[in-house]
Amino acid sequence: MKNIPLLDIDNMAADYPEPLVIEPLSQPHRQTFIILHGRGSSGEKFGPVLLNTPITTTASEDFVPSKTATPTPTPTPTTLASAFPHARFVFPSAARRRATVYRRAYTHQWFDNWKLDPPATAREELQQPGLRETTAYLHQLLRREIEQVSGGARNVVLGGLSQGQAAALTALLLWEGDPLAAAFGMCGWLPYAARLAEQLRAGTGAGAGGSSATGVDDETQLDSGGDGDDDFDPFERDDETADEIDPPSRAVSWLREELEVHRQEGNDDSRSAKFLDIPLFLGHGTEDNKVSILLGREASRCLDSIGVRARWREYQGLGHWYSGDMLQDIVNFVRSEAKWET
């Protein structure tokens, strides 16, 4: 295993603007949501609009606990903020980076990447520097917010829109702290999904012509951008422990090595897979013309194969944004999984 250098977090954090923080409507402070914007936006622009968006008042059948249960009358929330009146909302802003797809113009983005035409595997190397820094920054932000809320990580939710989802999912897969209450993504994708699926197949010994971890036959599997050296295994070990690495841990270890993210001392990915205990909701519009729903489906399948408890939902006629229906489903999902006091 190669030696991964430590990032200078304090200096790096200066590149990220101070997050927009919206305090709870009602005291005491009991929960915290950290929600990431998409490329080209910022916490200041994204946060207030999201919190003031009216949400649908009828619950999706997917989140009704029991059809025979006696309904309990509760106030009907009208916005995300009023649905969780004791929640603090934190909207971080991405650092300004040169965007290759915009002819290297500067914009707020969590990481650089090439065009997202499915399978979105071209020029994946562009993602590495930004994803590495953003993952470290988000881990630092999570630790800070966990310390400030009673109950710790079980009262913290991480979410994101578009590239914000991609950054949040990457940070979750490499998170080594206590499990969060829940996580969610809207109209986004999973970076390196095809490469992660490749690691999962390698871990299960799947051969050519078999079914991939994302449900795509190997014959039609999207090019992962490898160099064709089939004999090379970055996780090969000289001892008998090589056979003990389960496919999900193998995939996450590959991601950690690819991004050069430092592991906490004494941990390995087989013992620190905290993401497996974090329930995840993913929503995507069927008419999304910026991030194809095919990439959202691929993310859901890949995460499911890794062992993440992901709930996938599609929204007919919705483009590259959220909707009242999606926000209501997120509210219901978090409530059902976190079981917070109201």
Model description:
The protein has 342 residues and is of the alpha/beta class. It has 9 helices and 9 strands. Helix 4 crosses helix 5 (163-173), helix 6 packs across helix 7 (247-259) and helix 6 (193-204) packs parallel to helix 8 (293-306). Residues 80-199, 276-335 form the Phospholipase/carboxylesterase/thioesterase domain. It comes from Diatrype stigma.
Task: Give structural attributes.
342 residues, alpha/beta, 7-stranded mixed sheet, 9 strands, 31% helix, globular
Largest sheet: 7 strands, mixed
Mean pLDDT, to the nearest integer, reads: 82
Low-confidence stretches: 1-7, 65-73, 207-232, 237-242
Span between termini: 47 Å
Q: How many beta-strand elements?
A: 9
**Discrete helix count:** 9
Please state the structural category.
alpha/beta
Gross morphology is globular
Query: Helix and strand string, N-terminal first?
Result: HEEHHEEEHEHEHHEHEH
| Sheet with most strands: strand arrangement | 1-3-2-6-7-8-9
Radius of gyration, in angstroms, nearest whole number: 20 Å
In percent terms, what proportion of residues is strand?
5-15%
Q: How much helix is in the residues?
A: 25-40%
Biased composition (Acidic residues): 216-246
GO molecular function, one term: carboxylic ester hydrolase activity
Domain Phospholipase/carboxylesterase/thioesterase: 80-199, 276-335
GO cellular component, one term: cytoplasm
